[in-house]
Design brief:
This protein has one domain. The protein is 53% helix and 0% strand. It is globular.
Amino acid sequence: MSSTEPKLADPKTWLGQLQRGRRSGFPWALKVGPAEVHELLNFYITKDPRADRQIESRGEYYATLMLRTGMQDLSTIAAHLDKLAL
């Protein structure tokens, strides 16, 4: 693991649940300030800690969180997707 890859938090914490795409992290995300959730979503989408993205799908989970918390600035994610498309 390089220093730029996120370390996984304890799966019992809200942060660990959000990192892993667990639904139990969703209620927490709706309670905290949107700015904090948006920052974490940007980080975990662009520096995805999953070992196998084909087995673990989180697209719908993250997209729903983005919609429910009113995330409008998608420039970080768009730039990341552009890099992946190259």
